[in-house]
Amino acid sequence: MSDGRARQHVRTIIIVTIVTLFIWVYAESESLRRVSRDVTIRVVAPTDHTKIVWLDPNRQTSTDVTLSLQGSTAALDMMRSRLTAPIELTPGEIGVPASVGTHDLLLRDVLRQLPRFERAGVTLDSVQPPSLSMHIEELVPVQATVRVQLPAGISATVNVTPPTVTIHVPQRLAKTLGDEPTITAQVPVERIPNTIGDAVLNGVRLIAPTSIAADVAQGFARIDPPAVDLGVKVREKTTTETINQVPIQLGVPADALDEYKVEFVSANYLTDVRVTGSPEAIAQLKQRTGSISLFAYVPLLYDDLREGEIDGTIVFGNLQIEGVRIESNTPTVRLRVTKREPASGEGEEPNGAAPNASEPPPS
Predict the structure, then answer these.
(1) How far is CA 225 from each of CA 15, 101, 174, 179, 328, rounded to the nearest angstrom?
(2) pTM of the full predicted structure?
(3) pLDDT (tens digit, 9 = 90+) per residue, 284-302?
């Protein structure tokens, strides 16, 4: 065989091989196959925000399903790229009901109408699970007055912009907001200026009422706008220190000490006494020892003393700084008054308190 004929023969073999390969690739791409694909179905509220939508169970807004698809290799490969993003279903769109209530969606029928399945060359044979229960609920607007909550110890005049906001809630929850709905703008302590005077606090977030807090967190209710601006004029700043234990002293008239014995029925100390004042005043009280030294006493007049149990009013002493306020949950103490025997007993204390008076617990 001549060299020319040999080269022609080789060329023919190569061409036939390439054509055969193209035919095989084309045939393979056009051959029908069946595959399963896991995708996420997500329900989305309409853009006008007049409705909310969720799925059973647990009021979720998305769930995973398995699609059984049939088509050519090329078409299935193209469909795979279309199914990487969640499939969104919005009430009122093609195949999805728009009316308020509960709807059972036959997924195969609904999905077949979506643009990503149209003219895709793929048949959607089945979906597992085959149906989903979708709930559509209407939102109603409720006007609420903004109430400002300042940090403890802050006295200020506040202007709110806007003074009212709109809460969009499911109709079934509207009544839980009351006849005169309010919503709280809670000011963090770190946003209060360090000095007395005017300040503007922008974007103070609103706290949803307890009855709808869970719905707001899940996106089933919303506050519009979600934050307000505050013009704050700080008049006073105070801080509070709590003293765990304050002893109580008795003030018995000297001319009554020989005639009456006074003892505590209740404890002769107070717990959790609160001292409130400006930060500067509190710092001054703590300057010497690092803590506030405080005592309480019960001033008694001769005419107050009679045999039996009496209530003594507690007075706080030794804090001589203006503007400091002392508070206790126990304004009085129970005392027992008894007449002394003509002969003085042993072991009595000169201030009139009995030796067996209640002692404070160890610090």
Answers:
(1) 71, 28, 18, 21, 41
(2) 0.60
(3) 888 877 888 888 999 999 8
